[in-house]
Amino acid sequence: MEGIMRARLIGQLLAGSLLALAIAIVGPAQAQETGVQPAVQDAGPKLIGKVVSVTGTAVIEHRGAAVVQANTSGQPPQAKVGDLVYQGDVVRTEANSKLGINFIDGTSFNLASNARMVMTDFVYDPNSTSNSTLLSLTKGTFTFVAGNIAKTGDMQIDTPVATMGIRGTTPRIEISEDGTYRFATLIEEGKSTLAKKPGKRAALKPVQYTHKFDPNVCRGC
User: What is the structure's pLDDT at 193?
Assistant: First the structure.
């Protein structure tokens, strides 16, 4: 009797082992046939900068799902010094307000009253020479000091009427409510290129200052 029970136990163990082996072999093949793959965890929002100064009312609308879920109020909170800025965020200021942001590449941005900016794209590796940035400005006045991306890669500023390539300059951009704009830069520091968008209304002629002006940017805060 003991011998029979032992034989049955060995048989059950062998059967279980063969079944596990069959699943291990067939499972990946079925997944490949059906196209079903294990879920890959999202990398999460890309951190690109932080708020270094705030005056008046300014908000940061986070578009990344992980950041949005952390805000249970449903409304973007008042921005404060130390708040993090992510790729895809929308930054805006109200009347009589200012907001300063430092980016990870050393770029420093200052938004004046009634301004709106979208962090469309931001790729930066300090060891790379193919970095890129695309910031979309829709209205307001912006002053900034370009950082490493402008010097080692491709920094572009998009406006309703033109796209500007920034090359190590200190620009000031004004976008009026009627769609016209004014662009100023220190020509000693570098060159900027403007590509007007087809079909857009004529804008004010860009202005280049040959003398230095105070950009009023909180750099290195």
Answer: 55
Dihedral, CA of residue 175, residue 181, residue 187 and residue 192, to nearest 10: 90
Closest CA to 163 of 197, 139, 118: 197
| 80-84 own/partner pairs: CB under 8 Å, 24+ apart | 80/51, 80/54, 81/51, 81/52, 81/53, 81/54, 82/50, 82/51, 83/50, 83/51, 84/47, 84/49, 84/50, 84/51
Q: List the one residue out of 206, 212, 161 whose CA is nearest residue 189.
A: 212
Using DSSP's 3-state secondary structure scheme, residue 4 falls into: helix
Q: Which two tokens mark 179?
A: 């769609």
Quick: pLDDT tens for 136-195.
999 999 999 999 999 889 999 998 888 888 887 788 899 988 778 888 876 545 555 555
- CA separation for the pair 121, 97 (Å, rounded): 25
* Residues 121 and 144: beta-carbon distance below 8 Å: no
Write the CA distances from 74 to 61, 67, 69, 70, 71, integer angstroms.
Answer: 10, 12, 9, 10, 7
Chain position carrying tokens 């986070």: 62
Instruction: Please report which confidence band the pLDDT of residue 74 belongs to, taking 50, 70 and 90 as the band edges.
Output: low
